[in-house]
Amino acid sequence: MNLPPLLTRRLTLRGLYTLDALGAVASTVLCYWAAEAAPADGRPDEPIWLSLVIALAIGLPVAVRRHWPYPAAMTATIAASIGLATEIIPAFAAVAPLFAMALVFYVFNSIARDMRAFFFMFACTVLVSASLAGPIYIAESEAPTTDDTPPWMLAFLLAALVVSLASMLGFTAGERRAQTAERNEQMLQQATVEERLRVARELHDVIAHTMTLIVVKASIGNHVAEADPREARDALQVIEAAGRSAMLEVRRVLDMLREDTPYAPAPGIDDIPALVQLASVGGVEVQLTMDRPDEPAVAEAPESVGLAVYRIVQEAITNVVKHAAPAQCWVNVAVGADGVRIEVDDDGKRPARTHGAGSGHGLIGMRERVALHGGTFSAGPRAEGGFSVRALLPAGGGA
């Protein structure tokens, strides 16, 4: 059964204060009616103003129970105890002050849940219970009854049960809210860490790729600066283009952290040709093959998958430039119904133990991206020489 939204929606702070005010009005009215009830023993009624004072002293603390839990609980307990002990509120009308006490101690124990609050609640419960049972006990001592369970004991247990039950419910609600807040805080911290790792991974891929090209071209330009100024100028142009591209990507990654920044699409499969063209100037001859079917449902991959494909190809080419140049590299990207398949091979002549290794996190980053999308990844030396990278990313983005 679906409950109305009004019953399932969490109240705002203003709504809670409104509820407290309504509870205070209801408690005051009930306590005033109880105080105006005719005493059972036929004694004359107390003045109206005294009944009103007792009713206000019991009911008004309900309105401030969230701001001042201890003063509100103490005031309501003392006023209820005085009203019951002096029989301004007769025992048969004790439900009115006990109702106000339940409202106060429900919120009190949802806010204050330490040992001090427990002893305070226990003392208030004993006081109001004794105040209710005291006049009944005195009346019984003057006119003994033959009941197995004295009425004064029943009255004591009733008051204690009402207050303690409300306190336990409040304690449970407060613990649940505290656990929910702690769980939300842990989720927020986890999301923050994951976001930092994602940004760090993006920045690593951008900077590692670009700096590799810049270092390679800078070393070439430095060696040919005097012998071939034109070649040195071409190297500087490549460095400038790589630097501008890196600045744009770094700015895009950092802009994702700002809420007021317009959305900018991340690089994807369509940007791989430009990536390959830029990498070809780093001493590696890159041949790109892309297989994308005509069906839009198959050719269109989610943006997260497209970004992962782009970064994997970028990191694989960067490793070739860094560890195997000069070399030839073959990049094959195939988009199919089962996902996106990536193959990057090279014929680098460096030893396999250094190829693709080092102090960086290139292979680890590629493996993490593939695992994040529920795909498969493998990388290792080729039998005919060089290095090979294989990855398969499900078209749906994985689990």
UniProtKB/TrEMBL annotation:
- Recorded E.C. number(s)? 2.7.13.3
Membrane-spanning intervals of the chain: 15-35, 47-68, 88-108, 117-139, 151-173
Q: Name one GO molecular function term.
A: kinase activity
Which Pfam family would be a valid example here? HisKA_3
- Keyword Nucleotide-binding present in the record's keywords: the answer is yes
Query: Which InterPro entries does the UniProt record give?
Result: HATPase_C_sf, HATPase_dom, Sensor_HK_TwoCompSys, Sig_transdc_His_kin_sub3_dim/P
Keywords of the record, alphabetical order, are: ATP-binding, Kinase, Membrane, Nucleotide-binding, Phosphoprotein, Transferase, Transmembrane, Transmembrane helix, Two-component regulatory system
Q: What class of enzyme is it?
A: transferase
Cite the SMART domains for this sequence. Answer: HATPase_c
Catalysed reaction(s) here are: ATP + protein L-histidine = ADP + protein N-phospho-L-histidine
All copies of the Histidine kinase/HSP90-like ATPase domain together span 304-397
What is this protein's record name?
histidine kinase
Which organism does this record belong to?
Dactylosporangium vinaceum
